[in-house]
Write a structure and sequence with these properties.
heterodimer; A: alpha/beta; 7-stranded mixed sheet; 4-stranded antiparallel sheet; 11 strands; globular; B: 9 helices; elongated
C-alpha cells in the first residue's frame, strides 16, 4: 500500500527566503538492488531537499543501510538512478565523485574511525585530501569540529580509548569537518544508552540548525526519529510503503505501520495481555 | 561495482527479510558456486594483481605508509626468519654430513648447503613462513577494516583505499621478501658453519672458501628474484582476502585462514614454474 504525503515541513537553509522552494539535493529514482539472487530494494524512489532531515525507517533487513550506501555510491544499483543535484552519480568519473563526496558526510553505525590514527588524525586526513589549508588552520578546523560535538580534549586519543558514545561523536565530527551539505547517518543511536542516544539526537538537530545541512537518518529508534525530523519514509520487504509527515504516520491504517508502532510502544498492557495468553496456552497442558 | 573497492554486502541481518529472485534456482546455485569457487578466487587474485600493477605507478605514492608497512612486514619478521634460517642451515648440515662422509666427500658439505639454501630452501621456506605471518596479518587487518566499515569510510572521504591499503602493502612485501631472503641465506650458512665447527672442527676460512668457490651468481640471483614475485603473491592474496571479506568477525577469521592457505599453495606451485624457467635459461 502506497500512502504518500508530500506535505512535510522543510527547514530552509539559513539566508534563504522563507518562500523559496528548497533545492532537490538527492533523487533516488526507481532503484533496484539485490545480493546473491535476493532482491533487497525493489523500485524505491525518494527525494531529499536541501536543509531537510529525512528518517528512513523499517524492520531489520529491509534495505535501509543499503539505500544509504547507494546514495554515497558505496554500492551501485542493479537498475534505477541516484542523482546528486540532478546528475547521475553512477556516471561520474573519480574526480567528479570526489567533489560530490566532499559535500557528503557519513556517520557509520560503528563510527568507522581509523584504528591506526588518533582522533585528530582521523579528521585531518579528510582535510588534507579535500582542503588546501596550512597545518595551524587544519588544527583550528579540527578543534572547532570536535568542540561542536562536545569533544574538546580527545584530539590525541586513539579510537580504542573512547567509549561508544564518544566514538559516535568523533565520527560525527569527522563527518562535519569539511562542512558538507548532506550528512548520512546510519543508525546513529543504536547500541547507546537512552541518555547518550538523546544527546546524539540533540546534536543532529543542532548541526542541522547551525550548519543548515540536509540529513538522512537510518534509524529503528522511533523516539529519535520523532525528535530529529518531520518527514520519514518506511521500507518494508524492499518497497517504500510510506513517505510523509512522521506524525501523520501514527494515524495510518496500514497493518504494517500499525504493528510497527505497537511494537515500539512502552505498553505494560501489551505485556500483561501477552503473559495472559501464555498462561492460557499452558493451562490445558497442566490440567492434563 | 563501486569505483575503488569490491561492493560490501549487507550483513546477515540486513539481508534477512529479502525476497528470493525467481530467476535463480536455489538448489543448483550453491553447488555451482562451490565448483567454480577456486577458479573465481584465482580470477580475483589475477584481477587484483593487475589492478595493483596499473595503480602502483600513479601518484600519490604514500611513502610514509610504505615505510610503516616495511617495518611491519620486513623488520618485524626478522626474529622469525633468523630462527628458521639458522635451523635450516644447521639441520641440513647435520643430515647430510654423515652420508657425505661415507663417500669421503665431507669437504663438499658447505658447498652443497650453500647451493641448496640459496637456490631453493631459503627462498621457498622463508616465503612460506613470512607468507603465513604476513598474509594472515594483512587478511585479518583489512578484513576487520571491512567489517567495521573503515574501508567504506575511506571511500566516502575519496581516500582511495586500494592505493592506501593495497598498493602500499603489496609493494612492501615485494621489497621485504628479497631482503629477508638475503638475510636468511647468510644466517643459514652461519648455522651450517656452527654445526661444522662443533662436529668436525671446520675453520671459518675453510668454510668460507668452500662456499665462495662453489656458488656463482646464477645460483644466487634466481632465488632472490623469485622471492620478489612470492612477495607479490603474499601481498595480493592477503589484501584480496581482507578487502573482500564478508560476514563480520567470522569472515575476518576466514579471510586470514584463506590467505595463508592460498599463499602457501601459490608459492609452491609458482616455485615449480620458476625452477623450470631458470633451468631453461641456465642451459
Amino acid at each position: 500500500m502506497e500512502e504518500i504525503n508530500k506535505g512535510s515541513k522543510l527547514d530552509v537553509k539559513p539566508g534563504a527566503n522563507p518562500g523559496d522552494k528548497p533545492e532537490k539535493l538527492i533523487s533516488v529514482e526507481n532503484v533496484v538492488k539485490g545480493f546473491d539472487g535476493r532482491v533487497i530494494l525493489d523500485g524505491v524512489s525518494v527525494d531529499v531537499f536541501a536543509g531537510e532531515t529525512l528518517a528512513i525507517m523499517g524492520k531489520s533487513g529491509t534495505g535501509k543501510s543499503v539505500l544509504l550506501k547507494l546514495i554515497a555510491r558505496l554500492l551501485e544499483p542493479d537498475s534505477g538512478k541516484v542523482l546528486f543535484r540532478g546528475k547521475d552519480i553512477a556516471e561520474m568519473n573519480e574526480k567528479a565523485l570526489s567533489q560530490v563526496r566532499k559535500q557528503m558526510g557519513f556517520l557509520f553505525q560503528g563510527a568507522a574511525l581509523f584504528d591506526s590514527m588518533t582522533v585528530g588524525e582521523n579528521l585531518e586526513v579528510f582535510l588534507m585530501k579535500h582542503a588546501d589549508l596550512k597545518p595551524d588552520e587544519r588544527v583550528e578546523k579540527i578543534q572547532n569540529a570536535l568542540s561542536m560535538v562536545g569533544l574538546d580534549d580527545v584530539i590525541d586519543k586513539m579510537p580504542s580509548e573512547l567509549s561508544g558514545g564518544m566514538k559516535k561523536r568523533a565520527g560525527l565530527a569527522r563527518s562535519i569537518v569539511l562542512e558538507p551539505e548532506l550528512i548520512l547517518y546510519d543508525e546513529p543511536t543504536t547500541g547507546l544508552d537512552p541518555v547518550t542516544a538523546s544527546s546524539i539526537a540533540e546534536l543532529i538537530i543542532s548541526l542541522q540548525k547551525k550548519l543548515g545541512v540536509a540529513s538522512i537518518v537510518v534509524t529503528h529508534d522511533l523516539p529519535t526519529a520523532f525528535v530529529i525530523t518531520d518527514r520519514a519514509i518506511v521500507l518494508n520487504e524492499g518497497k517504500k510503503i510510506y513517505d510523509g509527515d512522521i506524525e501523520e504516520m501514527q494515524k495510518s491504517e496500514d497493518p504494517f505501520l500499525k504493528s510497527y508502532f505497537a511494537a515500539s510502544a512502552l505498553d505494560r498492557d501489551h505485556r500483561d495481555a501477552f503473559l495472559k495468553e501464555l498462561e492460557q496456552q499452558h493451562e490445558p497442558a497442566n490440567a492434563a | 561495482m563501486a569505483q575503488n573497492t569490491a561492493e560490501s554486502k549487507p550483513s546477515e541481518e540486513e539481508g534477512a527479510a529479502t525476497k528470493a529472485d525467481p530467476n535463480v534456482k536455489p538448489d543448483k546455485a550453491p553447488v555451482r558456486q562451490r565448483m567454480l569457487g577456486p577458479f573465481v578466487t584465482l580470477g580475483g587474485f589475477a584481477q587484483f594483481g593487475g589492478r595493483f600493477l596499473a595503480r602502483v605507478w600513479v601518484p600519490p605514492y604514500e611513502f610514509k605508509e610504505i615505510v610503516r608497512q616495511l617495518n611491519e612486514i620486513g623488520f618485524r619478521s626478522l626474529g622469525l626468519v633468523s630462527v628458521v634460517a639458522v635451523v635450516i642451515g644447521a639441520v641440513l648440515t647435520m643430515q647430510t654430513r654423515p652420508t657425505m662422509a661415507k663417500f669421503g666427500a665431507e669437504g663438499f658439505v658447505p658447498a652443497m648447503v650453500a647451493i641448496s639454501v640459496m637456490r631453493e630452501l631459503a627462498p621457498v621456506v622463508i616465503s612460506i613462513i613470512v607468507g603465513g605471518r604476513v598474509g594472515a596479518g594483512i587478511g585479518a587487518e583489512l578484513g576487520s577494516m571491512r567489517a567495521s566499515e573503515q574501508i567504506d569510510a575511506m571511500e566516502v572521504a575519496a581516500l582511495d583505499p586500494f592505493k592506501l591499503l593495497v598498493v602500499t602493502r603489496v609493494l612492501a612485501c615485494i621489497i621485504a621478501l628479497p631482503l629477508l631472503t638475503i638475510f636468511a641465506d647468510f644466517l643459514a650458512l652461519f648455522g651450517s658453519y656452527l654445526v661444522g665447527k662443533i662436529e668436525s672442527g671446520v675453520t671459518f676460512t675453510l668454510f668460507k672458501n668452500s662456499v665462495l668457490s662453489s656458488i656463482t651468481f646464477a645460483d644466487y640471483l634466481p632465488g632472490v628474484i623469485k622471492t620478489a614475485f612470492f612477495g607479490f603473491i603474499i601481498g595480493v592474496v592477503g589484501c584480496y582476502e581482507g578487502f573482500n571479506s564478508s560476514g563480520g568477525t567470522e569472515g575476518v577469521g576466514k579471510s586470514a585462514t584463506d590467505a595463508v592457505v592460498s599463499c602457501s599453495l601459490l608459492i609452491i606451485v609458482s616455485d615449480a614454474l620458476f625452477v623450470k624457467i631458470s633451468l631453461l635459461f641456465g642451459s
